[in-house]
Hints:
This protein is mostly helical. The protein has helices spanning 5-28, 53-62, and strands at 66-67, 70-71.
Amino acid sequence: MPLGREKEERIRKEARTILDKFAKALEKVETKESFVERKKCAREEGEGDEPNESFRQIFFQNAPEVNNNCIQAEKGKWK
């Protein structure tokens, strides 16, 4: 059911007012910026643990699509 033109305009104005109030409130929020500086940006490979075959089987059963021994998944599709 389409809204009347006046009602639609009123909703737009209310939404704009809410967004403006929110933006003003955000300006008052104090934030502390921080970052981590690392000398190395990649981890060193170790020996690793023994493979867990039951985990592998469960992982592949839950995968949306498997091709040979690879999982094919699209971003946001696997939930």
